[in-house]
């Protein structure tokens, strides 16, 4: 649409590789459109060629098989509506600050992915009895300066998660082929897990009977809770319960009267049960109204809204606190860790009423 010049742009955190986040106040409550989908890359974009349309599956399988795009399109399809949130989303708000992409609140998306369950492919290849993990490698690669070696972006999943019917090799996003920057032609989509697990531009899949030790799972995407050493570390996997206020804007000036406070809430375990709002910096709380996305529960975020009547002038701190069906609740303080993953402290903005 040549007249869509009013579209908001992504906010660039780094250009090469390209890391950009969504201006969260513009993100619609339903599926994230391509132009607002955050981009998170560890390496330059890979170049596309015809070999990309085949996925070899090997290792601890009975029948190693190369699946073509035609094979994949013919197999029973599976659609999942899911949030994909970067584990580093909101990293910028950790105190003390941590190194890494300084994401604010927009490294998150929600969309409709269609593809084939990984389990469907393993029905064809068979699995050896001692199969333990599924390694998925992407086509993008580059030098990791910290390790002084070239790596591809490669991750593994425990067999149980890989076999979940909603873990898919996707070939469509929002009813169209996946946009190139988001993994075309094939991308792994792992609902409920932070998005580092959802490997873009799949090159090959290998089943192993050991524990994968690639750097994107032994160096990165590990919580290191201590400042001085690596004691007590554990892997980043499922999303924490979280919420983000989309409206009003942080530091917005408002007039006295009625204002709609609204936003999104999501979790990697169960579903969102309540979102509480405070307009007095946490002294009192009230429930927001939650709208679950029209029957498509899946792994979507919930939108919520709260009608705020404000008659006094002054500065106000507005907070949102989500809770899920496992009774996980956003904490007042984030769980600090060296690499700044999984920030989910109570969301906060300030406004001035004049
Ligand atoms: N897959 C490949 N091949 N290369 C990558 O750098 N980044 C991961 C994941 N999959 C990555 C990848 C991370 S950390 C995130 S948050 C998501 O992709 C970002 O997906 P997006 O760029 O489609 O938003
Ligand atoms: Mo990420």
UniProtKB/TrEMBL annotation:
This is Sulfite oxidase. It comes from the Bacteria. Its cofactor is Mo-molybdopterin. Keywords: Metal-binding, Molybdenum, Oxidoreductase. Pfam families: Mo-co_dimer (PF03404), Oxidored_molyb (PF00174). Residues 240-353 form the Moybdenum cofactor oxidoreductase dimerisation domain. Residues 42-214 form the Oxidoreductase molybdopterin-binding domain. It comes from Virgibacillus byunsanensis. CDD domains: SO_family_Moco_dimer (cd02110).
């Amino acid at each position: 649409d040549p007249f869509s010049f009013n579209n908001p742009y992504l906010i660039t955190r780094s250009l090469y590789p390209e890391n950009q986040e969504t201006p969260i106040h513009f993100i619609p409550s339903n599926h994230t459109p391509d132009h607002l989908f955050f981009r998170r890359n560890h390496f330059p974009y890979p170049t596309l060629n015809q070999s990309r349309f085949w996925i070899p599956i090997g290792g601890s399988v009975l029948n190693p098989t190369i699946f073509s795009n035609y094979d994949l399109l013919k197999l029973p399809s599976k659609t999942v509506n899911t949030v994909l949130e970067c584990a580093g989303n909101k990293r910028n708000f950790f105190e003390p600050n941590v190194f890494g992409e300084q994401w604010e609140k927009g490294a998150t998306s929600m969309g409709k992915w269609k593809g084939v369950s990984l389990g469907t492919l393993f029905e064809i290849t068979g699995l050896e009895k001692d199969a333990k993990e599924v390694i998925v490698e992407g086509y993008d690669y580059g030098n990791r300066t910290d390790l002084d070696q070239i790596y591809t972006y490669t991750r593994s999943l425990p067999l149980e998660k890989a076999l979940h019917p909603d873990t898919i090799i996707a070939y469509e996003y929002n009813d169209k082929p996946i946009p190139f920057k988001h993994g075309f032609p094939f991308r792994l989509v792992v609902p409920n897990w932070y998005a580092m697990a959802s490997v873009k531009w799949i090159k090959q899949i290998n089943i192993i009977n050991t524990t994968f030790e690639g750097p994107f799972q032994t160096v990165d995407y590990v919580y290191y809770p201590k400042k001085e050493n690596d004691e007590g570390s554990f892997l980043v996997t499922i999303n924490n319960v979280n919420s983000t206020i989309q409206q009003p804007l942080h530091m917005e000036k408002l007039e006295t009267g009625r204002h709609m406070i609204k936003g999104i809430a999501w979790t990697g375990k169960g579903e969102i049960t309540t979102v509480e709002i405070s307009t007095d910096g946490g002294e009192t709380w009230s429930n927001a109204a939650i709208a679950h996305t029209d029957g498509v529960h899946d792994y979507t975020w919930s939108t919520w809204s709260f009608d705020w009547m404000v008659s006094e002038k002054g500065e106000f701190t507005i907070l949102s606190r989500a809770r899920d069906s496992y009774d996980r609740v956003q904490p007042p303080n984030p769980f600090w860790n060296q690499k700044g993953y999984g920030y989910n402290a109570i969301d906060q903005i300030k406004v001035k009423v004049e």
